[in-house]
Specification:
Keywords: Membrane, Transmembrane, Transmembrane helix
Distance between the termini: 13 Å
Shape: globular
Number of helices: 13
Order of helices and strands: HHHHHHHHHHHHH
InterPro entries: DUF975
Number of domains: 1
Number of strands: 0
Strand content: under 5%
Transmembrane segments: 20-38, 75-96, 117-137, 143-161, 168-190, 239-262
Structural class: mainly alpha
Helix content: over 70%
Radius of gyration: 22 Å
Protein name: DUF975 family protein
Pfam family, one: DUF975
């Protein structure tokens, strides 16, 4: 099944009962909206602080950093929020995979199915998977950032200094730096996608009685196949419009339709590649 067929099937399944899928994604969507509103509030407050400090000629880097640090909030509270939010997202994805496989929605309560992962202790291996994935992403982010800083610092910075204010050379170096930054960004996305199938593999591993660690290794095996990762990137790119609309509406469009549609399509992608 190709990408277009997967998306058509996902859309058709959701149209069978929009109310159910609205309820299924309601809690996680509200958390996204809550987080988006909080982010907007922080940005507005930062702009107001910078404007005020600039008018008083008292703006410094230390002042801005103190503001950011003071708005970090409770670390444990943020960790708890992230954990609950991630578990609910995983729960919704598991339910959507079951529906995609069965070609219909179960006549259950959407709100009740939101907490599917907490039945039969599925959340226990999910916590361990979350920790493993967090470690992987942290290591990945560190490597990417260090690599970017080293290359930019030891290659592009000396070139800029050697350019001696030659605007044409500076422009060429700036373009090369932009291309390099884009390349690093794409590589980072690809590496992040190596663990994109964890939730679905965790569900299948749980049902088969396999170790949850096997979900991690199988996700890498599936997503390091060139055909799979390229198809997944194209599938992600096809949802850019929906993602932008969701961002502009602070998550409201996702609550109404796109969150369930996108996640159902991703479930279809896994169902297509899982036997490879």
């Amino acid at each position: 099944m190709n990408r277009i067929d997967m998306k058509h099937k996902a859309k058709a399944l959701i149209k069978e009962n929009r109310g159910y899928y609205f309820a299924l994604t309601l809690v996680s969507s509200l958390l996204i909206i809550f987080q988006s509103v909080g982010t907007v509030r922080q940005v507005v407050q930062l702009i107001q602080m910078i404007s005020r400090e600039m008018l008083n000629n008292t703006l410094t880097i230390e002042t801005a950093m103190r503001f950011v640090e003071s708005d970090d909030g409770d670390v444990m509270g943020n960790l708890l929020f992230t954990t609950i939010f991630t578990l609910l997202i995983m729960s919704v994805r598991m339910v959507l995979l079951n529906h995609y496989r069965n070609n219909h929605w179960e006549k259950h309560s959407g709100i009740k199915d939101t907490f599917y992962i907490f039945s039969q202790n599925r959340w226990v291996p999910a916590i361990f998977i979350m920790i493993l994935n967090a470690l992987y992403l942290t290591i990945l982010q560190t490597i990417v950032m260090l690599g970017y800083i080293l290359i930019a610092g030891f290659i592009f910075l000396p070139l800029l200094i050697a350019a001696n204010h030659n605007m044409i050379v500076v422009l060429i170096i700036a373009i090369l730096l932009l291309v390099f930054s884009l390349l690093i960004f794409i590589i980072a996305i690809i590496c992040r996608n190596f663990t994109s199938q964890l939730t679905y593999l965790l569900l299948d591993s749980y049902n088969k009685g396999d170790s949850f660690v096997s979900a991690f290794t199988k996700s890498f095996r599936l997503m390091t196949i060139k055909e799979n990762i390229s198809q997944y990137l194209m599938l992600q790119a096809s949802f850019i419009g929906w993602s932008l609309l969701n961002a502009v509406t602070l998550g409201i469009s996702g609550l109404v339709f796109s969150n369930a549609y996108i996640e159902m399509s991703y479930a279809g992608f896994y169902e297509t590649i899982k036997t490879k």
